[in-house]
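Mods, move this if it's the wrong board.
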Amino acid sequence: MKEKIISFIFTILGLIAVALVLVITLYLLVAGIPAIREIGLFEFLFGRTWKSTGQDPQFGILPFILTSIYGTCGAMVIGLPIGFFASVCLAKMVPARIKDLFEVLIGVLSGIPSVVYGLVGMLVLVPFIRKVFNLPDGASLFAAILVLSLMILPSVIKVSLTSLEAVPRDYEEASLALGATETETYFRITVPAAKSGIFTSIVLGIGRAIGEAMAVMMVAGNVANMPSLFSSVRFLTTAVAIEMSYSSGLQRDALFSIALVLFVFIMLINSVLSVIKKGKKDE
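Not the wrong board. Structure tokens:
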């Protein structure tokens, strides 16, 4: 009887979660499609100018899309290797005391609000970039990439570390008995055995990077330019966050359309990664 009750509760909670996702999807479709229909799909997605409050308003979001893509990819290029090698080091190569200390520090990093990351980036990183690269303003895509790469580290390290520690010790002992070195064992036996969890950490990192708004809003400059490494830019998330409070009419509908594009974008990324993960399992 207890098992049936628990199973019923979990089933209800799962259905609620699915229903909430469907409601969000439906709401974004209803709120976002009218503006796309009025502006025009091609002009909305591939237009290079965003002037939502001008006398002749323009609603091109290509700069936002490219900025989000470049920012997410840049954060992955920097953050994923650091997070992966850090997790391998903590799981297999450092003493237990040092590992416990770093696990506490990683837990603290994961609990820091995004606004704190943005504040530190605005007060420390942005002036540093301005001085080192001799720029008029350090708020740029480069600053946003560095902040995002730091923000994804806790997720990547914690999930990868848990997966690596879950690999049975027998696998490693068998490899060592056959004459492999410890380093060869870690990267040729342990890491492939934990690839499912490591892949999950990558998905979580991408989701954190592409969905972040507050931190990048404080360090990116928030100008609707086509993306350049050392110029002020605006992400899809920040485009919605900045203007939603005072928007109305077509401008407000266009912001919902941006949210719809971001939602579709995230769903496509997750679908592609899921297909890749399934393909690797079949191999």
